[in-house]
């Protein structure tokens, strides 16, 4: 059997202009990595939006995924939240298993 | 040529009609869209083209005192227009101080596509214009942002746990944003390589320019139409009116500023157009960082869905008429 | 010029060869691909270009009775060809009623790229053609979809919990799909601005047209080749044969319809080409909504992997020959 | 410690032409938001597909992510399923934590 | 109530040149499907990277999502890991529910 | 024309300046970027254009013994340069055998954009060149990869559980990669359709070529600058020096190889440029599959961030000078 280790997966949807601000916080919080996925469109409390046709960053969202140590998750979440409280976006946390614990 | 003729001629150009097509398609909920990657590239192409052409012009004419004076006028206008806009918005609308500051910033800064549409109209009249106006456009992008930040801070001093970036970092970031770098960089390259450089790449940056502009304006129509559909409910009548009256106020100020300067008629029309235009790429992104509490639905819809179509359809012919009065 | 000469000349054009390159690359599992964003934009460009050029032509010639007759003929053919196709498929193949209806819809509608390839061939022969054929293409896109829906409903009355959209909503959606809006919109703008408008944007929509078409055909070859690789197993021999015989039947019908009308030889060739072509963008998307039970692997592979290459390589020269017989 | 609330995360992969049909259902089911992510390619029971080179929507898939209240999840799932039963696509549900419960 | 079945969701981030190698392994391991999502940028132990502006595949990552039977998950994971051990990338596993068990 | 004049003239071309702009923007951390989809398409466009033009040239001149000799020389150089590079790197740097093999592979293979920049420089001097050099470029892409694999295997025999692909499968994959297929395919189509085919699509593949090249070089500057920022720490001084000295060594070898052959001056300059250039698209991808243990930060940064700028700015003028000595 493959031995796996429990981690937390943060999935953050955030407006594109604030992306650097968010990844800076993630780095400061000591996460070992993150991955940025494009987003086409969405709907939330601020209404419907779509990236189609946009030449600029405003009005576009991106998704950031970061696998973090369960012990660090709260601290990371707090920092992330300090960005998201002011910007458009959401964050969810879930349990995941990874193979190499040392990598994260 | 009368103002009416100018306006009619402007309205039946392929550029304006493609914008209208995009607007109509979006309002009719067609699934027509331009992919984001292509929209970004079209915008970069426009910067590259007008930057380079402006630089190649300056290579011929050299730096003149006139150029410096017009740049100075542009910077000052970019700085004070947000103040006027802010005061007006606070007086007539119920926008919060932060929203009013964010909206005003857009009107102090400039829209490159409005500028490009102005160039097309000026050239359509067979009027020459000064190449350095591209550089004027570049220096007018940023001061308005600083001005708006100062207004917002006066209204709401930054809280202790305010983790926003410092104004300095922000201005630096805005100064290095993609449009400014592409515009200024291409201007400098055009300047360095001159008419010979221009001749080398003219089949790419000159010949197909108008057609590509049509495609980009179609895209802008699509985005503006979507904005109108989604964002209209966020705009009260006074705010809507602001989107049309503010460019006229800016145009009047620009006309005054030009009186002592002696720009050509074409150049004057473009300077007035720049001043009257409202940003919809650089400033919105800056506002999301600097004043995230301000509602993007308001300023994006107003700038792109109200002021841009107004300038494209009616403003530019009007500014041409103003220019024929103040230009040399 | 003999049919053989026509066919040879057609086969060694850069357009057909780039399609063949794409096909070969996909079959050899090369990793060559055109990004989706670019493929979409190339398709929009083709619509913009032929729409505008057609409109500018009509601005010169005006609306004629001939135009209305040809449009009527196109609508009727688009409506009845699916019926013929459906009956034939049900008779010779083991396709389900829903699959047969979905496949037939593609053959009643049209393929813009086949049309564009036809224009190239017609121009390669130095033949003029009527600009209004672009409008004919636009009106022929949709009737076939309605026709196919009626066929499918007869075979399988919609169940109570059938949550599909109403036929009306669907037709509205199809009528506003990106290709139709771009084609009709550009046609109207070309019409409104006429040859003067065309001259303004010709360096974008006319001069590089053929080269861009090569790039798009390369992409179509890649997609068609991928379809052949993945989808071939879903096509039985009778269905395969249908993909080649049905366009010939449609071409024959179109030729008959043209006899009383008196189109030019070039125009007749294009009308026959339109009728013989099979949709691969608008109809497949409509079928996913209207008849989701129909298998896309069948109709996409057949239209794009069999009929399109056939028309491109052999059909078009044949339709030219037919047209020289029926055209004026 | 950051207080989090349990929600359900729906991840729906659906063919592009049916996207509006799906988001209409989500809206009708009262979800507070969703996010649409592009998809490049995939394989399922209907075979392999790829978006590369496609000029049209048919044959292309997209991914829709929606964070919903656990209490509403079943109702949402039923509506989603009524679309997916007829279209090409799959849906998965997982547990996630969010910070602001009122947002969802 | 909607009856759901427990499955495992593999989320694999892998460098683009090795994508075919990975999907071949997934196919060999008998997964019923997978979905490939584009990735814009990221950071990991090998540093920061971004797909922006790249004309080639090297230096670009993609995300592969595969829903697999819990019983098969270990075997699939082992095969996936045999690719990832040599390439740049990570893999996480989480629990998800699906509606139609037979589809996976 | 003196070497200094050549170098100056090269440095102030719009192409080199747009590359410099990209480099500067990336180093200053501007957010200017070209979307990936567009970057890929620009690269395909360059292959299509130079492939087709080369093929159309060969259609005029036919296959000659000279062509075959130059191809043979190219294949041999592509095969042996990695060996030289490997030995040198192992001697002067502390790179592991696998890293040294991977880096060397890049220098044996070629960079199409360097080749294209060379063509621009050659044409800027009014020099003609042989069209078949495009075919030479195509055959020089792959041998270096095989050579590097053999070097790496000698150093580290593949382990039993080594699940990498066989060398054969790899070579096949590399031989069918997007660039090779596009380049060779367009070459063959250009050959088949000749000057007539070229005339048909010249407004797309010839006229705007230089401008599009500027845009692509801007993108390359951005990517190279980002690489320098991120990857510089992975390069020790000996490795850095290798990135500049190795192209000079390759250029010397190419010059020697040309002595008996009698290429034109322009053709010689291009052959030397090809040999001196280092791959940054095809080989890196192949290395990720064949030698995944090799660190991409090293070879990508070295090829794109050191050797490419060096060749673009200084190498090409130098190779022109070498060619005027050895060319006919
Ligand atoms: N419940 C949700 N599920 C998934 N995505 C959401 C949800 N709510 C919001 N989002 C995403 O986050 C963006 C911003 O949300 P909001 O701040 O609520 O407007 C939306 O446009 C969606 O893309
Ligand atoms: N087991 C799976 N894991 C992840 N994605 C899947 C799976 N099965 C299907 N998909 C995705 O859903 C699409 C449609 O699936 P299907 O209806 O089975 O052909 C596929 O093309 C994949 O993109
Ligand atoms: N902790 C993490 N969370 C999310 N993505 C990660 C994480 N670590 C690595 N990645 C992604 O996987 C890629 C390769 O990781 P690495 O092999 O650590 O360089 C990174 O560039 C990220 O895109
Ligand atoms: Na302004
Ligand atoms: Na038809
Ligand atoms: Na080389």
What does this structure look like?
The complex is a heterohexamer, with 3 copies of chain A (104 residues) and 3 copies of chain B (328 residues). Chain A has 104 residues and is of the alpha+beta class. Chain A has one domain: Alpha-Beta Plaits, CATH 3.30.70. Chain A has helices spanning 19-28, 70-84; strands at residues 5-15, 34-38, 41-44, 47-50, 61-69, 89-98. A 4-stranded antiparallel sheet of chain A has the order 2-5-1-6, with helices on one face. A two-stranded antiparallel ribbon of chain A has the order 3-4. In chain A, helix 1 runs antiparallel to helix 2 (70-84). Chain B has 328 residues and is mostly helical. Chain B has a single domain, classed as Na+/H+ antiporter like fold (Up-down Bundle), CATH 1.20.1530.20. In chain B, 78% of the residues lie in helices and 0% in strands. The longest helix of chain B has 31 residues, at 296-326. The mean pLDDT of chain B is 93. Chain B binds chain C through residues 12-14, 17-18, 21, 24-25, 28-38, 207-212, 214-215, and chain C through 35-38, 40-41, 44-45, 48, 52, 173, 176-178, 181-182, 185-186, 188-189, 192-193, 197, 200-205, 207-208. Strand 3 (41-44) of chain A pairs antiparallel with strand 2 of chain D, so a sheet runs across the interface. One sodium ion (NA) is lined by residues 107-110, 250, 275, 277-278 of chain C.
What's the total helix number of chain A?
A: 2
What fraction of the residues of chain B are assigned to beta strands by DSSP? under 5%
Which stretches of chain A of 5+ consecutive residues score pLDDT under 50? Answer: none
Beginning-to-end CA distance, first to last residue of chain A: 21 Å
List the bound ligands: adenosine monophosphate, sodium ion
What is the multimeric organization of the chains shown? heterohexamer
- Give Rg of chain A in angstroms: 15 Å
Global shape of chain B: globular
* Number of spatially distinct domains of chain B: 1
**Biggest β-sheet: strands ordered side by side in the sheet of chain A:** 2-5-1-6
């Amino acid at each position: 059997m493959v031995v796996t280790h429990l981690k937390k997966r943060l999935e953050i949807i955030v407006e594109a202009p604030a992306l650097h601000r968010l990844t800076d916080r993630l780095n400061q919080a000591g996460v070992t990595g993150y991955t940025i996925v494009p987003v086409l469109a969405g709907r939330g409390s601020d209404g419907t939006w779509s990236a189609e046709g946009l030449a600029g960053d405003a009005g576009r969202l991106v998704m950031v995924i970061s696998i973090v140590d369960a012990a660090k998750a709260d601290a990371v979440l707090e920092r992330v939240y300090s960005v998201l409280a002011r910007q458009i976006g959401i964050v969810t946390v879930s349990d995941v298993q990874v193979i190499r614990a040392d990598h994260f | 040529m009368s103002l009416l003729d100018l306006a009619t001629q402007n309205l039946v150009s392929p550029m304006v009609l493609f914008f209208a097509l995009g607007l109509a398609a979006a309002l009719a909920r067609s699934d027509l869209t331009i992919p984001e990657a292509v929209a970004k590239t079209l915008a970069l192409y426009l910067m590259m083209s007008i930057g380079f052409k402006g630089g190649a012009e300056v290579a011929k004419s050299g730096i003149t005192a006139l150029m410096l004076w017009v740049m100075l006028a542009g910077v000052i206008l970019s700085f004070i227009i947000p103040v006027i806009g802010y005061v007006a918005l606070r007086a007539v609308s119920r926008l919060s101080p932060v929203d009013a500051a964010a909206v005003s910033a857009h009107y102090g800064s400039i829209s490159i596509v409005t500028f490009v549409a102005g160039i097309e109209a000026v050239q359509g009249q067979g009027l020459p214009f000064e190449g350095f106006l591209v550089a004027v456009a570049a220096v007018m992008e940023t001061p308005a942002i600083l001005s708006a930040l100062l207004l917002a801070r006066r209204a709401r001093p930054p809280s202790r746990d305010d983790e926003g970036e410092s104004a300095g970092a922000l201005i630096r970031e805005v100064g290095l944003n993609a449009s400014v770098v592409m515009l200024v960089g291409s201007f400098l390259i055009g300047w360095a390589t001159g008419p010979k450089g221009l001749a080398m790449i003219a089949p790419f940056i000159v010949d197909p320019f108008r057609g590509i502009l049509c495609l980009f304006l179609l895209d802008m129509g699509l985005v503006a139409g979507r904005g109108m559909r989604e964002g209209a409910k966020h705009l009260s009548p006074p705010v809507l009116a602001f989107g049309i009256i503010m460019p006229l106020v800016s145009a009047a100020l620009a006309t005054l500023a030009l009186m002592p300067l002696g720009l050509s008629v074409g150049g004057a029309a473009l300077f007035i157009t720049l001043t009257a235009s409202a940003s919809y790429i650089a400033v919105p992104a800056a506002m999301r960082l600097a004043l995230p509490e301000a509602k993007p639905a308001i300023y994006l819809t107003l700038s792109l869905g109200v002021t841009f179509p107004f300038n494209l359809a009616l403003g530019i012919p009007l500014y041409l008429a103003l220019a024929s009065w103040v230009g040399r």
